[in-house]
Design brief:
The protein is 40% helix and 22% strand. With 450 residues, it is of the alpha/beta class. It has a seven-stranded mixed beta sheet, with helices on both faces. A five-stranded mixed beta sheet has the order 9-8-10-11-12, with helices on both faces. Helix 5 packs across helix 6, helix 8 crosses helix 11 and helix 14 packs antiparallel against helix 15.
């Protein structure tokens, strides 16, 4: 596991464990690394956090000090940086965001020239440099890089999204929750250009209100707005707009699993699901798999993280995949999760079939789920304990084809996650607790949290 960079970049509390010095040196390395044989160009986007402006300046200073150009898209979405890095042939892209986290956190997401998450070998080189204390050469004279305004890239991305819509949205009432984040201008522009009667909430960022009781992590605000204002549909984004959750006209949540079901079915019905496969993570709901089985659609299960979903899609030629959290990847159109693109695709399914979203999801029965986090002394020892494994097998056999159990370890904490999905909430609780009881009997548990 990398020391600084996780599956979604270098993330931490601004100027605590992700500092302006880190950002400067990441910029120094990237400017040098990509500029060894030509004048490198690196595109940068940011979300609306107060610290994003500071990190943008630090990254730009590092990049230009190493002789490369820093092209600033300003406040924009992660998928827009991915799109522009690829289409405008940048050496790489950087998105400054901590996604769905609170404003005090931030992150540096690195994107390669293909619009994908940065290769691990480059991440490894950056980490070595950050810890080495090595000095990189400074550019001098005319070789010093430039900081270039690149807002035009954001506008081209908006244009690209508009071209992907297959229907006019005239007479459709759409609510958008922009989480006071990256989507605050872009989403409204896209939906209004397509003719929707657009109503936007949480689109007044002030640097500290990003994701604050709003957006995809607090969907209840959008649910209430949709019902009270008689909207046809609502879409909620996270801080950098690479996620989207939907709300149907009745106020019901349609999460990533629901989106995969609706659009996977839509693709199959039009003979567009080329491999007849939807890529999910192991955390997708058991009900999704039952519904896909009923449709005759195959599925893959990856580790948690949109990175792993994308890798599976690319390796096997699958065209759609995603996570319950709303990271949905449409392989024909993007190399990363894209919240606004996801909203456009759901609109396509609704308008093509002339059905409200509630009708499109009526055959998807989401199973009750209980997940408890168990802090343990040694997560590998606890995970592989014979008695614990026997308890897991016993629950699995008892549930049969009416549910499932999942025992997995956290990637960052000494924690095991015990999750059960079953026909009733009571069955979930009972079976989760049965496994935890065995862990306690074995002296493996430090603390149990919901």
């Amino acid at each position: 596991m990398s020391k600084y960079f996780g599956t979604d970049g270098f993330r931490g509390e601004a100027n605590v464990n992700l500092t302006v010095d880190h950002a400067f040196h990441v910029g120094r390395f990237l400017g040098w690394y990509y500029g060894r044989d030509h004048k490198a160009q690196i595109v940068i986007g940011k979300d609306t956090r107060r610290s994003s402006y500071m990190f943008e300046s630090a990254l730009s200073a590092g990049i230009t000090a190493s002789g490369a150009d820093a092209c600033l898209m300003h406040v924009t979405t992660t998928p827009s940086v991915s799109y522009i890095a690829k289409t405008d042939e940048f050496d790489c892209g950087i998105m400054i965001s901590a996604s769905h986290n609170g404003f005090q956190d931030n992150g540096i997401k690195l994107i390669n020239r293909h619009g994908e998450k940065m290769e691990q070998e480059v991440i490894d080189e950056i980490e070595k440099y950050l810890d080495s204390g090595d000095k990189l050469p400074y550019a001098t004279g005319e070789n010093i890089g430039r900081v270039i305004d690149y807002a035009s890239g954001r506008n081209r991305y908006i244009g690209y999204l508009i071209t992907l819509a297959t229907h006019s949205y005239k007479d459709v009432k759409v609510a958008l929750d922009c989480a006071n984040g990256s989507a605050w201008m872009i989403a409204k522009n896209v939906f209004e250009a397509l003719g929707a009667e657009t109503f936007v909430i949480n689109n007044t960022p002030n640097g500290v209100n990003i994701n604050a009781n709003c957006g995809s992590t607090h969907i209840e605000q959008l649910q209430k707005f949709v019902v009270e204002n008689h909207m046809d549909v609502g879409f909620a984004f996270d801080g950098d707009a690479d996620r989207c959750l939907a709300v149907d006209e009745k106020g019901n949540l349609v999460d990533g699993d629901g989106i995969l079901y609706v659009y996977g079915r839509h693709m199959k019905e039009r003979d567009k699901l080329v491999t007849n496969t939807v890529v999910t993570t192991i955390m997708s709901n058991f009900g999704l798999y039952k519904a896909l089985d009923a449709l005759g659609i195959d599925y893959e299960k990856t580790d948690v993280g949109d990175k792993y979903v994308y890798e599976n899609m690319r390796a096997n030629g699958h065209l759609i995949g995603g996570e319950q959290s709303g990271h949905i990847i449409f392989g024909k159109y993007a190399n990363t999760g894209d919240g606004i693109l996801t909203a456009i695709k759901l609109m396509q399914a609704m308008l093509s079939r002339k059905m409200p979203l509630s009708k499109l999801t009526q055959d998807l029965k989401i199973y009750p789920q209980v997940l408890k986090n168990v802090r343990v002394q040694d997560k590998d020892r606890a995970l592989n304990d014979f008695a614990v494994q026997s308890a897991v097998r016993e629950v699995s056999e008892k549930l049969g084809d009416q549910g499932r159990i999942l025992l997995r370890k956290s990637g960052t904490e000494p924690v095991l996650r015990v999750m059960v999905e079953a026909p009733t909430h009571e069955m979930c609780e009972e079976n989760v607790d049965a496994v935890i009881a065995v862990m306690e009997q074995r002296g493996l548990v430090v603390e149990v949290k919901k």
